[in-house]
Specification:
Layout: E1 8-12, H1 13-27, E2 31-35, H2 37-41, H3 45-54, E3 59-63, H4 65-72, E4 78-81, H5 87-95, E5 99-102, H6 105-118, E6 122-127, H7 139-154, E7 158-164, H8 172-191, E8 198-200, H9 204-209, E9 217-220, E10 242-252, E11 255-258, E12 274-277, E13 280-287, E14 292-295, E15 305-309, H10 319-325, H11 330-335, E16 342-346
Bound molecules: pyridoxal-5'-phosphate.
Protein name: Alanine racemase
Cofactor: pyridoxal 5'-phosphate
Modified residues (N6-(pyridoxal phosphate)lysine): 37
Length: 347
């Protein structure tokens, strides 16, 4: 009986593959870098990286080095880690051929020193701060950063593989201004003799909606997992890849108790949202630690499974629609789900 009440995130490989195909078609000739941070947005890295590699994804975005190492154990594809790491992690990344995103002089010197120690070559993606002020070389510090990296290139211990930045996506005008700074930085690097193989600036929304901002590579997470932008339109050819189900644990007059709650990562603020039962949609009355109370329906019985959120196939909300109710984003709903929710990957 205990097993029955474990909540399950059912994940569709086919839907994931279809989203990747739709995204790649949409952004071509820009190439996809599939972002896998937060355990592939709550879905689990291992199967997702293997599946993506099998469908021909050649770039992965890992956030940090430990995540990059998990991906490296599954694929020889290019893997990009942009969180600043300590020396030990940076050394491991160099050994494993993981590309590093570099946004400060201190970190640049540290990874070059690591490559020199190992008598190896570190693959660098230099980050220009285009206005977000979240890590990255300020334009006035750019020439020096490029010069330091170029000197290491000349010594054969570094390679400037990429130039990159991150957009605020607050307004089109700001993103346009950021792009102008980005273009300037690429030009300055090339003038200094750098020959970056890739340039990457945009994430899901700008890559999809603003083709003029796409560079040779696009770092995309959310849309590949079928997570729309909050308050954003539907995306042709993509769909949520998972649905969260929970089982009925108790039936009382007027209310049904489900075996899922805030301990599983369901926000208690979801009261009033509707879940899909075999008899149609019913309102959430209350979310507690280990359980959720829902309006009753005829024929409700212990062990029956209902859908908390999913693809919309049974009228249920998707993660983004739930997120909109509580003023957050869809990835937040998925990444909050704890390991107490069993992940089951189906075809
Ligand atoms: C999370 C992240 C992305 C992907 O963003 P999505 O909106 O999920 O596509 C891209 N680049 C960086 C630096 C990120 O942190």
């Amino acid at each position: 009986m205990e097993r029955m009440s474990v909540p399950v995130l059912e994940i569709s490989r086919g839907a994931f593959r279809a989203n990747i195909a739709a995204v790649r078609a949409r952004i071509a000739p820009s190439e996809l870098m599939l972002v896998m941070k937060d355990d592939a947005y709550g879905h689990g890295i291992e199967w997702a990286a293997a599946e993506a590699a099998a469908t021909g994804v050649t770039w992965f975005g890992a956030y940090d080095v430990p995540t990059a190492q998990r991906i490296r154990s599954l694929t020889d594809a290019r893997i990009f880690a942009w969180a600043p790491s300590n020396d030990e992690e940076a050394d491991a990344a160099i050994t494993a051929g993981i590309d590093l995103g570099i946004g400060s002089l201190e970190y640049l010197h540290a990874v070059i020193a690591g490559a020199a120690r190992q008598n190896s070559c570190v693959r660098l993606h230099l980050k220009i701060d285009t206005g977000l002020h979240r890590n990255g070389f300020r334009p006035e510090a750019w020439d020096e950063a490029v010069a330091v990296a170029r000197a290491a290139e000349e010594r054969g211990i570094a390679r400037i593989v990429g130039v990159w930045s991150h957009l605020a996506e607050a307004s089109d005008a700001e993103d346009d201004a950021a792009r102008a700074v980005f273009r300037w930085a690429v030009q300055r690097a090339e003038d200094a003799g750098a020959r970056p193989e890739v340039r990457h600036l945009t994430a899901s929304a700008a890559s999809w909606w603003r083709p003029e901002l796409r560079e040779s590579l696009s770092r995309i997470g959310a849309f590949c997992y079928g997570i729309r932008s909050a308050d954003g339109p539907a995306l042709a050819g993509t769909a949520p890849i998972s649905r969260l189900t929970a089982a009925v644990d108790a039936v009382d007059d007027g209310r049904v108790t489900l075996g899922i709650g805030s301990f599983h990562g369901v926000p208690s603020t979801l009261r009033g949202a509707r879940v899909a039962t075999p008899a149609g949609l019913r309102e959430i009355l209350e979310v507690d630690g280990a359980s959720t109370a829902v309006e009753a329906w005829p024929g409700a019985h212990i062990g029956q499974r209902i859908i908390v959120f999913g693809t919309g196939a049974d009228g249920e909300a998707d993660a983004t629609a739930l997120a909109e109710r509580i003023d957050t984003v869809g990835e937040e709903i998925l990444t909050r789900l704890t390991p107490a929710v069993r992940r089951v990957v189906v075809d």
